[in-house]
Write a structure and sequence with these properties.
The chain has 347 residues and is of the alpha/beta class. Helix content is 44%, strand content 17%. Strands 1, 2, 3, 4, 5, 6, 7, 8 and 9 form a nine-stranded mixed beta sheet that branches. The chain is elongated and about 70 Å long.
């Protein structure tokens, strides 16, 4: 049987923490250990953990960071301290349903499955169900495909094998938070999708609590945000190109630590990221270049390589013909007029 470590990152979570800890203790498939890393809480968080640890049905290992790491570094450190076959990320303010670990472990029947993630109920602090996570998260099909695919950390259970590449984490680049390395859940999803298989469970296995103080709450995208994303494409494509280039470089470096078939998969996916990075660099030029001739040249280069013929799928990343229409009508035709709207940060 596969052993499971629960990796919990805490910071000033005393108000919500005990319910989460009790839900871990109530699992029908008991974890081998709970690893808690606290990021300098100033409330009673560590006291709550200590009280729970006295009677917990599994070992509880508690660590306190001497200097604050932030949620990214805190979760990465928590995972690094785990010893089991599988690791499950755990937020401090949600609560798990009793069969969460059991159902996730059952999905690791194939050695190629490196990550399992699941749906969740979005609930109020008093447990009232608002909806399901997949409704707010664009749905499962997107999150299992594409170069920026990811899932929420509290839904993830993954093989410890993926920690082998943690030394490369700081070289990654988060598209959603420029200047930062990938969040812990993005990093694990990236590696799992590049090297093996990911299994999705549509069943809600966690109550994702919304209490007003969440670091990240349920994402609602309104019309102004959609319009901004639509028009600020040139600088966004430039940033995306850099993020994809970093991922390709990480997979190139990871090959030295791998044997086949893992190495072959890293090689193939590295080339996919590098190709797509070049495509988005050219696509950025369509919007950013001030000269019509340069914008048209970038479009022709993309057409020549068949970039727009590749559909956006898990196995065949591409720009799609819909992007061709946008690039022609907005980029080539209106590039200079959109320039004043570009405000994405430099990296």
């Amino acid at each position: 049987m596969l052993s499971v470590s629960v990796a919990m990152a805490t910071y000033n979570g005393a108000l919500y923490l005990r319910r989460q800890l009790d839900s871990i203790a109530a699992q029908s498939y008991a974890p081998a250990e709970l690893v808690v890393v606290d990021d300098g809480s100033s409330d009673e968080t560590l006291s709550v953990v200590a009280a729970f640890a006295k009677d917990a049905p599994f070992p509880v290992h508690v660590y306190r960071n001497e200097t604050r790491l932030g949620f990214r570094g805190n979760f990465m450190r928590a995972a690094s301290l785990c010893n089991s076959d599988l690791i499950a990320f755990c937020d401090q303010d949600d609560y798990w349903y009793p069969h969460k670990i059991k159902v996730c472990v059952e999905r690791f029947s194939e050695p190629d499955i490196l990550l399992v993630y699941h749906n969740a109920d979005v609930v109020t602090l008093d447990g009232k169900r608002i909806d399901r996570l997949d409704k707010f998260a664009l749905g499962q099909p997107f999150f299992s495909s594409g170069p920026l695919a990811h899932s929420r950390g509290f839904t993830q259970t993954f093989r410890r094998f993926l920690l082998k590449f943690s030394s490369l984490w700081m070289t990654s680049l988060d598209y959603f938070q420029p200047g930062e390395p990938l969040a812990h859940d993005q990093w694990i999803f990236f590696l799992a999708s590049a090297l093996g298989k990911i299994s999705y469970l549509d069943e809600p296995l966690v109550a994702y609590v919304q209490h007003g103080n969440n670091l990240f709450g349920s994402p609602f995208v309104d019309l102004p945000q959609k319009m901004e994303s639509f028009f600020l494409s040139g600088s966004q494509f430039s940033l995306l190109s850099k993020c994809l280039e970093r991922r390709g470089a990480i997979l190139d470096s990871a090959q030295t630590e791998l044997d086949d078939p893992w190495r072959e998969r890293a090689q193939i996916t590295a080339k996919d990221y590098q190709r797509l990075s070049r495509d988005y660099a050219k696509r950025s030029a369509i919007y950013m270049s001030t000269k019509f001739g340069d914008r048209l040249k970038a479009l022709r280069e993309l057409l020549a390589t068949g970039a727009y013929e590749r559909a956006w799928t898990k196995k065949n990343w591409g720009l799609s013909r819909k992007s061709l229409v946008k690039d022609l009508c907005l980029g080539v035709a209106l590039g200079p007029f959109l320039k004043s709207l570009r405000n994405a940060p430099d990296v």
